[in-house]
């Protein structure tokens, strides 16, 4: 049970979440003095919060002996079958899809990072559109949640990419039905826009609150197949003197997002910024939020420049090998480099 359900003042709930106390169980072994210090409140107020939390948490339920204490155990064979049947979201770049095993995998958290201007937001928008490709065209027929922390989401650009996606589907259909009359794609760009749920975030407390709310939101909107956070970093690089608190908050968010990906069989995409790190006698570019954050995601993709060309490199993944592929950001969205012009598969 989460602290957001406690019958306490809104300011106390916000302070609890900001300090990293997400679940009621996280308050079970803390003293009033410690909580008062973390929240910047009096000990009497902290005592009251802990009393309410203990009452709401209630006594531990007795579990009958014939029931398993921990649910959800599965065999490795089941896991392999799930992995093989898991759908993927195309990036609209055949070369990038190839190194990803067909696209971005559902049930996993994928971090995509790179320098400004490399195309992170463009790739996020492309995935929010491509997740909606109908089943008959090899897509997931899903919807998207887009959490924008930087204000970089541009509706005009989304509409442009949606229109290009419709043209791609028409071309794909004509390619498959060479000797048959062409079918009309019964979708408009506005249909794609209507299936993207947008959240504008202006502080790290809002970001935590929205991510805590996502489980309820997705339960009520069953077709959501991708959650994009652009970027996970922005509000956590400002106003944080307590790095231990920041690590705890980020860890809590990562666990929530992993749970969402698995529970709802959806892809979670976390866009990340870069920072500098001193290593081997020199400063080098690395993804932001530190080494501990690098373990929070299933897959990590680094976008970088090679001369005038954009490249994507799989830096970490338990299921696909490390590899790099070129891609381009065009008027139609993410595509293959013009010099490497393959037909782009939808899936």
Itemize the secondary structure elements and their pairings.
Blueprint: H1 10-18, H2 32-39, H3 43-57, H4 76-85, E1 88-89, H5 94-99, E2 104-105, E3 109-114, H6 120-130, E4 143-148, H7 155-176, H8 189-194, E5 196-200, H9 204-220, E6 224-230, H10 243-264, E7 267-272, E8 274-279, E9 282-287, H11 290-293, E10 299-306, E11 309-316, E12 324-330, E13 333-335
Parallel strand pairs: 3-7, 3-10, 4-5, 4-6, 6-7
Antiparallel strand pairs: 1-2, 8-9, 10-11, 11-12, 12-13
Helix pairs in contact: 2-3, 6-7, 9-10
Organism: Coffea arabica (Arabian coffee)
Domain RecA family profile: 85-274
Main location: nucleus
Which fold name corresponds to the CATH topology of the largest domain? Rossmann fold
Low-confidence spans: 60-69, 340-347
| Mean pLDDT value | 86
Q: Based on DSSP secondary structure assignment, what is the total number of beta strands?
A: 13
The fraction of residues in strands falls at 15-25%
Radius of gyration: 22 Å
At CATH level 2, the architecture of the largest domain is 3-Layer(aba) Sandwich
Structural class: alpha/beta
* Molecular shape: globular
**Oligomerization:** single chain
Count of domain modules = 2
CATH class placement of the largest domain: Alpha Beta
* Helical coverage, percent range: 25-40%
Q: CATH superfamily name of the largest domain?
A: P-loop containing nucleotide triphosphate hydrolases
> Largest sheet, described in full?
9 strands, mixed
User: Count the helices. How many?
Assistant: 11
Report how far apart the termini are: 39 Å
Order of helices and strands: HHHHEHEEHEHHEHEHEEEHEEEE
How would you write the strand order of the largest sheet?
5-4-6-7-3-10-11-12-13
